[in-house]
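Ligand: adenosine-5'-triphosphate. Inputs:
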Amino acid sequence: MIRIENLSKYYKEIHALNNISLHVTPGELFAYLGPNGAGKTTTIRILTGLTKHSSGNVYLNGFNIKKESLDAKRQCGLVPQSINLDQELTVYENLDIHGRLFHMPARKRAEKIQELLNYVDLADRQKSLAKQLSGGMKRRVMIARSMVHSPTILFLDEPTVGLDAAIRRKIWALIKKIQQTGTTIFLTTHYIEEAEFLANRVAFLDEGNIVAVDTPQNLMDTLGAWAIDRVMDSEMETLYFETREDAKAYIDSQHESFTFRRVNLEDAFLALTGKKVK
Ligand SMILES: Nc1ncnc2c1ncn2[C@@H]1O[C@H](COP(=O)(O)OP(=O)(O)OP(=O)(O)O)[C@@H](O)[C@H]1O
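Predicted complex:
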Protein backbone atom coordinates (compact mmCIF):
# COMPACT_ATOMS: atom_id res chain seq x y z
CA MET A 1 0.00 0.00 0.00
CA ILE A 2 1.27 3.46 -0.91
CA ARG A 3 -0.19 6.59 0.66
CA ILE A 4 0.97 9.98 -0.59
CA GLU A 5 -0.32 13.06 1.23
CA ASN A 6 0.19 16.61 -0.07
CA LEU A 7 3.60 15.80 -1.52
CA SER A 8 5.60 18.71 -2.98
CA LYS A 9 9.12 18.93 -4.35
CA TYR A 10 10.95 22.09 -5.35
CA TYR A 11 14.33 22.27 -7.05
CA LYS A 12 15.03 25.93 -6.27
CA GLU A 13 12.50 27.78 -8.45
CA ILE A 14 11.32 24.62 -10.28
CA HIS A 15 8.12 23.16 -8.85
CA ALA A 16 8.63 19.51 -9.82
CA LEU A 17 5.64 18.26 -7.76
CA ASN A 18 2.72 20.34 -6.49
CA ASN A 19 0.79 19.03 -3.51
CA ILE A 20 0.18 15.50 -4.78
CA SER A 21 -2.08 13.05 -2.93
CA LEU A 22 -2.61 9.42 -3.98
CA HIS A 23 -3.58 6.10 -2.47
CA VAL A 24 -2.42 2.91 -4.18
CA THR A 25 -4.10 -0.16 -2.72
CA PRO A 26 -2.37 -3.49 -1.98
CA GLY A 27 -1.90 -5.59 -5.11
CA GLU A 28 -2.87 -2.78 -7.44
CA LEU A 29 -1.02 -2.02 -10.66
CA PHE A 30 -0.97 1.74 -10.77
CA ALA A 31 0.36 3.68 -13.76
CA TYR A 32 1.71 7.19 -13.47
CA LEU A 33 1.45 8.75 -16.89
CA GLY A 34 2.84 12.04 -18.10
CA PRO A 35 5.05 13.71 -20.70
CA ASN A 36 8.79 14.30 -20.31
CA GLY A 37 9.48 16.54 -17.33
CA ALA A 38 6.05 15.99 -15.71
CA GLY A 39 7.64 14.77 -12.46
CA LYS A 40 7.39 10.98 -12.77
CA THR A 41 10.99 10.11 -11.90
CA THR A 42 11.04 12.70 -9.12
CA THR A 43 8.03 10.98 -7.53
CA ILE A 44 9.64 7.53 -7.75
CA ARG A 45 12.95 8.83 -6.40
CA ILE A 46 11.14 10.35 -3.40
CA LEU A 47 9.08 7.23 -2.75
CA THR A 48 12.18 5.02 -2.82
CA GLY A 49 14.23 7.30 -0.56
CA LEU A 50 16.67 8.56 -3.23
CA THR A 51 15.49 12.18 -3.16
CA LYS A 52 14.15 14.20 -0.21
CA HIS A 53 10.75 15.83 -0.59
CA SER A 54 10.10 19.46 0.30
CA SER A 55 6.80 18.85 2.12
CA GLY A 56 4.06 16.29 2.65
CA ASN A 57 4.01 12.69 3.89
CA VAL A 58 4.50 9.33 2.21
CA TYR A 59 3.77 5.92 3.74
CA LEU A 60 4.81 2.55 2.32
CA ASN A 61 2.84 -0.24 3.99
CA GLY A 62 2.26 2.21 6.85
CA PHE A 63 5.94 3.19 7.29
CA ASN A 64 6.68 6.91 6.99
CA ILE A 65 9.49 7.28 4.44
CA LYS A 66 11.09 10.12 6.39
CA LYS A 67 10.73 8.94 9.99
CA GLU A 68 10.98 5.17 9.36
CA SER A 69 13.16 5.23 6.26
CA LEU A 70 14.86 1.84 6.71
CA ASP A 71 11.60 -0.02 7.26
CA ALA A 72 10.03 1.87 4.36
CA LYS A 73 12.94 0.98 2.06
CA ARG A 74 12.63 -2.72 2.91
CA GLN A 75 9.06 -2.68 1.60
CA CYS A 76 10.02 -1.69 -1.90
CA GLY A 77 12.06 -2.68 -4.93
CA LEU A 78 13.12 -0.24 -7.65
CA VAL A 79 13.78 -0.72 -11.34
CA PRO A 80 15.27 2.61 -12.44
CA GLN A 81 14.87 4.10 -15.88
CA SER A 82 18.49 3.74 -17.00
CA ILE A 83 20.33 0.43 -17.07
CA ASN A 84 22.50 0.42 -13.96
CA LEU A 85 23.72 -3.19 -13.84
CA ASP A 86 27.38 -3.78 -13.11
CA GLN A 87 28.36 -4.61 -16.69
CA GLU A 88 31.56 -6.46 -15.74
CA LEU A 89 29.76 -8.83 -13.36
CA THR A 90 27.67 -11.86 -14.24
CA VAL A 91 23.89 -11.90 -14.07
CA TYR A 92 24.08 -14.02 -10.91
CA GLU A 93 26.60 -11.68 -9.28
CA ASN A 94 24.45 -8.63 -10.00
CA LEU A 95 21.59 -10.24 -8.08
CA ASP A 96 23.86 -11.57 -5.35
CA ILE A 97 25.29 -8.13 -4.52
CA HIS A 98 21.75 -6.84 -4.06
CA GLY A 99 20.92 -9.68 -1.64
CA ARG A 100 24.12 -8.93 0.33
CA LEU A 101 23.14 -5.26 0.61
CA PHE A 102 19.94 -6.41 2.32
CA HIS A 103 21.98 -8.73 4.61
CA MET A 104 20.30 -11.86 3.33
CA PRO A 105 21.94 -15.10 4.55
CA ALA A 106 23.93 -16.96 1.84
CA ARG A 107 21.59 -19.93 1.45
CA LYS A 108 18.42 -17.87 1.33
CA ARG A 109 20.08 -15.57 -1.18
CA ALA A 110 21.12 -18.41 -3.47
CA GLU A 111 17.65 -19.98 -3.36
CA LYS A 112 15.91 -16.69 -4.07
CA ILE A 113 18.24 -15.84 -6.96
CA GLN A 114 17.63 -19.20 -8.63
CA GLU A 115 13.88 -18.80 -8.18
CA LEU A 116 13.96 -15.31 -9.71
CA LEU A 117 16.21 -16.27 -12.64
CA ASN A 118 13.75 -19.03 -13.49
CA TYR A 119 10.92 -16.55 -13.05
CA VAL A 120 12.35 -14.06 -15.57
CA ASP A 121 13.43 -16.90 -17.85
CA LEU A 122 17.16 -16.19 -17.60
CA ALA A 123 18.45 -19.17 -15.60
CA ASP A 124 20.53 -20.28 -18.58
CA ARG A 125 22.26 -16.87 -18.75
CA GLN A 126 23.23 -16.55 -15.09
CA LYS A 127 26.94 -16.91 -15.85
CA SER A 128 26.88 -14.37 -18.70
CA LEU A 129 28.39 -10.97 -18.06
CA ALA A 130 25.71 -8.27 -17.94
CA LYS A 131 27.37 -6.49 -20.86
CA GLN A 132 26.78 -9.57 -23.04
CA LEU A 133 22.98 -9.36 -22.72
CA SER A 134 20.45 -7.71 -25.01
CA GLY A 135 18.50 -4.64 -23.81
CA GLY A 136 15.39 -6.71 -23.05
CA MET A 137 17.41 -9.26 -21.05
CA LYS A 138 19.07 -6.48 -19.06
CA ARG A 139 15.63 -5.14 -18.14
CA ARG A 140 14.58 -8.60 -16.97
CA VAL A 141 17.74 -8.90 -14.84
CA MET A 142 16.97 -5.51 -13.31
CA ILE A 143 13.42 -6.61 -12.51
CA ALA A 144 14.73 -9.83 -10.93
CA ARG A 145 17.34 -7.86 -8.97
CA SER A 146 14.68 -5.52 -7.58
CA MET A 147 12.82 -8.54 -6.18
CA VAL A 148 15.70 -10.38 -4.45
CA HIS A 149 14.76 -9.06 -0.97
CA SER A 150 11.07 -9.97 -1.56
CA PRO A 151 9.55 -6.48 -1.60
CA THR A 152 5.77 -6.17 -1.58
CA ILE A 153 5.85 -2.88 -3.53
CA LEU A 154 7.66 -2.56 -6.83
CA PHE A 155 8.52 0.75 -8.51
CA LEU A 156 9.14 0.52 -12.24
CA ASP A 157 10.40 3.71 -13.87
CA GLU A 158 9.71 3.52 -17.63
CA PRO A 159 10.36 -0.24 -17.66
CA THR A 160 10.15 -0.66 -21.44
CA VAL A 161 11.74 2.54 -22.68
CA GLY A 162 13.88 1.93 -25.76
CA LEU A 163 12.71 -1.67 -26.27
CA ASP A 164 11.07 -2.92 -29.46
CA ALA A 165 7.38 -3.87 -29.54
CA ALA A 166 7.89 -7.63 -29.16
CA ILE A 167 10.26 -7.34 -26.18
CA ARG A 168 8.01 -4.71 -24.63
CA ARG A 169 5.16 -7.22 -24.67
CA LYS A 170 7.37 -9.81 -23.01
CA ILE A 171 8.13 -7.35 -20.20
CA TRP A 172 4.40 -6.55 -19.91
CA ALA A 173 3.65 -10.25 -19.44
CA LEU A 174 6.32 -10.41 -16.74
CA ILE A 175 4.88 -7.36 -14.96
CA LYS A 176 1.39 -8.92 -15.01
CA LYS A 177 2.84 -12.15 -13.63
CA ILE A 178 4.49 -10.24 -10.77
CA GLN A 179 1.23 -8.49 -9.95
CA GLN A 180 -0.50 -11.87 -9.75
CA THR A 181 1.75 -12.75 -6.79
CA GLY A 182 0.07 -9.90 -4.85
CA THR A 183 2.84 -7.33 -5.35
CA THR A 184 1.73 -3.70 -5.53
CA ILE A 185 3.19 -2.11 -8.67
CA PHE A 186 3.73 1.59 -9.28
CA LEU A 187 4.79 2.16 -12.84
CA THR A 188 5.72 5.32 -14.67
CA THR A 189 5.42 5.49 -18.42
CA HIS A 190 4.84 7.79 -21.32
CA TYR A 191 3.67 4.89 -23.46
CA ILE A 192 -0.09 5.25 -23.53
CA GLU A 193 -0.73 1.67 -24.60
CA GLU A 194 1.43 0.40 -21.73
CA ALA A 195 -0.79 2.13 -19.16
CA GLU A 196 -3.91 1.13 -21.06
CA PHE A 197 -2.93 -2.53 -21.16
CA LEU A 198 -1.38 -2.97 -17.72
CA ALA A 199 -2.94 -0.61 -15.24
CA ASN A 200 -5.87 -1.08 -12.88
CA ARG A 201 -5.80 2.69 -12.42
CA VAL A 202 -3.93 5.56 -13.99
CA ALA A 203 -2.90 8.99 -12.72
CA PHE A 204 -2.33 11.71 -15.32
CA LEU A 205 0.55 13.95 -14.29
CA ASP A 206 1.11 17.31 -15.94
CA GLU A 207 3.78 19.79 -14.84
CA GLY A 208 3.87 18.35 -11.33
CA ASN A 209 0.08 18.29 -10.91
CA ILE A 210 -2.23 15.29 -10.90
CA VAL A 211 -5.07 16.13 -13.25
CA ALA A 212 -7.02 12.84 -13.09
CA VAL A 213 -6.97 9.44 -11.37
CA ASP A 214 -9.24 6.65 -12.59
CA THR A 215 -9.38 3.34 -14.46
CA PRO A 216 -8.24 3.55 -18.10
CA GLN A 217 -11.76 2.63 -19.22
CA ASN A 218 -13.45 5.38 -17.18
CA LEU A 219 -10.97 7.97 -18.44
CA MET A 220 -11.65 6.98 -22.04
CA ASP A 221 -15.42 6.71 -21.52
CA THR A 222 -15.60 10.42 -20.67
CA LEU A 223 -15.00 11.09 -24.37
CA GLY A 224 -16.91 8.29 -26.12
CA ALA A 225 -15.86 5.02 -27.72
CA TRP A 226 -14.91 6.04 -31.26
CA ALA A 227 -12.76 8.83 -32.66
CA ILE A 228 -12.35 10.46 -36.04
CA ASP A 229 -9.17 12.41 -36.76
CA ARG A 230 -9.29 15.08 -39.44
CA VAL A 231 -7.16 18.00 -40.54
CA MET A 232 -8.90 21.38 -40.31
CA ASP A 233 -7.02 24.54 -41.36
CA SER A 234 -3.69 22.69 -41.06
CA GLU A 235 -4.53 21.62 -37.50
CA MET A 236 -5.38 18.09 -36.39
CA GLU A 237 -8.85 17.86 -34.90
CA THR A 238 -10.47 14.84 -33.25
CA LEU A 239 -14.19 14.23 -33.02
CA TYR A 240 -15.63 11.70 -30.54
CA PHE A 241 -18.70 9.48 -30.88
CA GLU A 242 -20.59 7.17 -28.55
CA THR A 243 -21.15 4.46 -31.15
CA ARG A 244 -19.50 3.17 -34.28
CA GLU A 245 -22.76 3.85 -36.17
CA ASP A 246 -22.73 7.55 -35.18
CA ALA A 247 -19.13 7.88 -36.34
CA LYS A 248 -19.89 6.09 -39.63
CA ALA A 249 -22.90 8.32 -40.25
CA TYR A 250 -20.69 11.37 -39.79
CA ILE A 251 -18.09 10.05 -42.25
CA ASP A 252 -20.80 9.24 -44.81
CA SER A 253 -22.11 12.83 -44.61
CA GLN A 254 -18.67 14.34 -45.40
CA HIS A 255 -16.52 14.38 -48.53
CA GLU A 256 -13.06 14.44 -46.92
CA SER A 257 -11.04 11.40 -45.87
CA PHE A 258 -10.77 10.58 -42.17
CA THR A 259 -8.91 8.30 -39.80
CA PHE A 260 -11.44 6.25 -37.89
CA ARG A 261 -10.31 4.52 -34.67
CA ARG A 262 -11.15 3.56 -31.09
CA VAL A 263 -10.75 6.22 -28.40
CA ASN A 264 -7.54 5.71 -26.41
CA LEU A 265 -5.97 7.06 -23.21
CA GLU A 266 -4.00 9.63 -25.20
CA ASP A 267 -7.33 11.26 -26.13
CA ALA A 268 -8.32 11.46 -22.46
CA PHE A 269 -4.95 12.98 -21.52
CA LEU A 270 -5.18 15.48 -24.36
CA ALA A 271 -8.73 16.46 -23.40
CA LEU A 272 -7.68 17.12 -19.79
CA THR A 273 -4.36 18.88 -20.39
CA GLY A 274 -4.43 20.11 -23.97
CA LYS A 275 -1.16 18.22 -24.51
CA LYS A 276 0.03 14.97 -26.05
CA VAL A 277 1.88 12.59 -23.72
CA LYS A 278 4.75 11.87 -26.09
N1 LIG B 1 18.16 17.14 -9.78
C1 LIG B 1 17.39 18.08 -10.33
N2 LIG B 1 17.70 19.39 -10.24
C2 LIG B 1 16.90 20.34 -10.76
N3 LIG B 1 15.74 20.08 -11.43
C3 LIG B 1 15.39 18.79 -11.56
C4 LIG B 1 16.18 17.72 -11.04
N4 LIG B 1 15.54 16.55 -11.33
C5 LIG B 1 14.43 16.87 -12.01
N5 LIG B 1 14.33 18.21 -12.15
C6 LIG B 1 13.22 18.93 -12.81
O1 LIG B 1 12.00 18.50 -12.24
C7 LIG B 1 10.99 18.36 -13.25
C8 LIG B 1 10.47 16.93 -13.27
O2 LIG B 1 11.51 16.06 -13.73
P1 LIG B 1 11.34 14.46 -13.76
O3 LIG B 1 12.65 13.88 -14.16
O4 LIG B 1 10.76 14.00 -12.49
O5 LIG B 1 10.27 14.28 -14.92
P2 LIG B 1 9.79 12.96 -15.66
O6 LIG B 1 8.30 13.04 -15.76
O7 LIG B 1 10.36 11.76 -15.00
O8 LIG B 1 10.43 13.13 -17.11
P3 LIG B 1 11.04 12.00 -18.11
O9 LIG B 1 9.87 11.30 -18.71
O10 LIG B 1 11.79 12.85 -19.09
O11 LIG B 1 11.93 11.11 -17.30
C9 LIG B 1 11.64 18.80 -14.57
O12 LIG B 1 11.34 20.15 -14.76
C10 LIG B 1 13.11 18.61 -14.30
O13 LIG B 1 13.90 19.50 -15.08
